[in-house]
Amino acid sequence: LMRSAQRILVQNTNLRDALIINGIAIERTIETWSGCDTDLLHPKSKILKIPDEDLEHKIQEPIIIYAGRISAEDKLETVINIAAALQSKSENVTFLFYGDGPGRAKLESHARTAGVLNKSVLILDPVPRAKLPLVLTKATAVIGRIQDATIWDPSSHIFDALAAERPVIFAGANPHRELVVSRGAGIELTINDAQAAAREITDFINNAD
């Protein structure tokens, strides 16, 4: 079965090496992680020394970033509503969405209707894994899970945000929120109330120290 597969996902280098030993070409393997690649976020990493000119967009802080798959189930429209509430109050907060997926077109449409697309909200192409640390280190905060959930998602970019020492924003009841917020590494927003959530983000940014 593996010999007939076009691509094989492996969770670590040891598994990839084992496949290569058994005759699977390295270019047919894709290494993925449950969590994050902490080597990319090490303080001595050359990736963190990439100059600002290499960033696709220069955006004035504060910056709130989402990086990952955009699906209809993620309730990211909630974040668009918060961005619109902040924009209406002339709060200069920029939201960057790096990602693609079946929910992207709907998200863009929602942002356009809310009047924030290409203003306080930019929806951009996915970030290569090796560039993700650079992107996250430019963030004031990183968007985590924005919906109720009972299942832990080990592939979430939440781990990358924590490794980059950036606070994570949550809404809704989910195991990610319970782990991060209880340890002072993130904040919980009021769900289904964009005005209240906008005030909470403003308070957080103004009292970040």
- Quote the beta fraction: 5-15%
Distance between the termini: 54 Å
Q: Return Rg in Å.
A: 18 Å
- Regions with little confidence, pLDDT below 50 for 5+ residues: 43-56
| Major sheet attributes | 6 strands, parallel
Regarding quaternary structure, how should these chains be classified? single chain
Average pLDDT confidence is: 80
Structural class: alpha/beta
Overview in brief:
Helix content is 31%, strand content 15%.
Overview of this protein structure:
This protein starts with 7 loop residues before the first strand and ends with a helix. The strands form two sheets. The chain has a six-stranded parallel sheet, sandwiched between helices. The relative contact order is 0.14. Helix 1 links the parallel strand 1 and strand 2 (about 30). It has seven helices and eight strands, in the order βαββαβαβαβαβαβα. It is α/β, with parallel strands linked by helices and about 210 residues long. The radius of gyration is 18 Å and the shape is elongated. It has helices spanning about 15-20, 75-90, 105-115, 130-135, 160-165, 175-180, 195-205; strands at about 10, 30, 65, 95-100, 120-125, 140-145, 170, 185-190.
